[in-house]
Amino acid sequence: MSENRLSLHEAAVALAADPEHVHAMEIRLAQAIEHGELHADIVRWATEQWDGNHLPGNLNARMTRIAAADLAAWQADNP
């Protein structure tokens, strides 16, 4: 049985109140990951590889993966 995983970007889209707040949610998730509050399989950009908006810790929002269960637990603690 494989675990349902979302990219950091997909998680932000799912949690954002509207499309204009997706990047703000990406930043919130990235900060939670960087502070050990949300587990993720992290992929980081090298500075010269940055694409689009930058996130804390140079996290790559499309390749960093979060388990749906971990995201749900984090969301329950951070409404």
- Our count of helices gives 3
What's the pLDDT, averaged over the residues?
89
Distance between the termini: 29 Å
Helical coverage, percent range: 25-40%
Which spans of ≥5 residues are poorly predicted at pLDDT below 50? none
Instruction: Please compute the radius of gyration using only Cα atoms.
Output: 12 Å
Largest β sheet strand count, sense and barrel closure:
2 strands, antiparallel
Labels describing this entry:
mainly alpha; 3 helices; two-stranded antiparallel sheet; 8% strand
Written description of the protein model:
With 79 residues, the protein is mainly α. Helices cover 39% and strands 8% of the residues. The chain contains three helices and two strands, in the order E-H-H-E-H. Strands 1-2 form a two-stranded antiparallel sheet. The longest helix is centred in the middle third of the chain and has 13 residues, at 22-34. The N and C termini lie far apart (29 Å). The mean pLDDT is 89.
In short:
This protein has 79 residues and is mainly α. It contains three helices and two strands, in the order βααβα.
Walk me through the topology.
Blueprint: E1 5-7, H1 8-15, H2 22-34, E2 65-67, H3 68-77
Antiparallel strand pairs: 1-2
